[in-house]
Amino acid sequence: MNTLDITTMTWSAQTQSQSVLPFYGYTATLLPNGLIVDIGLHLINIKIQIQVFDTKLYTWSTKPASGSTIASRRHHTAVLTQDGNIIIYGGSIYDSSGNIAYVFSDIAVLNTNSWVWSAPSVSGTSAPPLMPHSATLYKNYMILSFGTISTSILYKTIFIFLTYKITPGLQQTKLNKVTVIPQQIMILQIYILELALKLLRHRVHTIYETHIPTIYTPGIHPPAKYELIPMYGVPVPGNNYHSS
């Protein structure tokens, strides 16, 4: 295991006394309690397994998960939801010759408190089988982008899953809707959002400037008329305005 110090931007090798199972094409998810959950394909018994690394104790452990049967895979993605569940999507398996045998389009949820797998139902337009794609969680939205199912079919469409809790007491996450957004529309939306934020910051800065109080020197009469005009050309009512 190697550690990157983001302050000095230097790598260092960590000595491990434990033997670690060989994994390939796995995902690593950091939990708030300092545990790193590795989910991937075990190269010896060709079975999906869960390995956990404790960043505080520097120890490895294997978690036996129960619940729904999850097919072995690699090159999938994983995100951590706000309620502490890990959602994996996609991935693939290979034949004995090293060729892609199957690409998955299913979703699996791992409860990191009970280590129980579940396979929630999904409504709406389904995302295609993907590997190796990217997945990012923004609030309650899992954003899937790019990926492929072969060397000749590449995707540039953005897929968004809406996640929410079925029952707050069960802490179970369900993906109930899939939204397909073409890449061009996504880029346009990002551009519009950035433009709106710039205008908002500019407007707040302008309003702040127009509300700076006027300081008068004792013994010197204030000007007969004082008015600030914001950049947008609209007078600000009641802003240090004195009629002549």
UniProtKB/TrEMBL annotation:
SUPFAM superfamilies: Galactose oxidase, central domain. Pfam families: Kelch_KLHDC2_KLHL20_DRC7. Residues 1-101 form the Bulb-type lectin domain. The chain crosses the membrane at residues 141-161, 181-200. InterPro entries: Bulb-type_lectin_dom, Gal_Oxase/kelch_b-propeller, Kelch-typ_b-propeller. The keyword Electron transport does not apply. Keywords: Kelch repeat, Membrane, Repeat, Transmembrane, Transmembrane helix. This is Galactose oxidase.
